[in-house]
Amino acid sequence: MNYIHKLQQQVKELEDEKTDARESLQDLVNYLHSDKFRCNNSLDGYVNISDVLNRLGSARAALLDG
Questions:
Q1: What residues make up the domain containing 32?
Q2: Is 34 helix (H, G, I), strand (E, B) or coil?
Q3: Whole-model pTM?
Q4: CB under 8 Å to 56, separation ≥6 — which residues?
Q5: Quick one: how far is CA 36 from the chain centroid?
Q6: Spatial CA neighbour of 63 closest among 8, 21, 19, 14
Q7: How many angstroms separate the CA atoms of 37 and 42, rounded?
Q8: What does the DSSP 8-state code read for residue 39?
Q9: What is the pLDDT of residues 37-52, one digit of tens each?
């Protein structure tokens, strides 16, 4: 494989990683907007930090494994 093809492959892999990262972050945003965190009282908007950290850990692992 010549150098240009190798670079094109690397660019595609990096674009795929960027897409995966965007999808993981969007998944986290959707999760934070889910009904799980709606109390319909003064506690609306508060989240469990460990829930968010677990989701971030899963997203990070998915990106590193990909």
A1: 3-65
A2: coil
A3: 0.63
A4: 28
A5: 19
A6: 21
A7: 12
A8: -
A9: 777 777 666 777 888 8
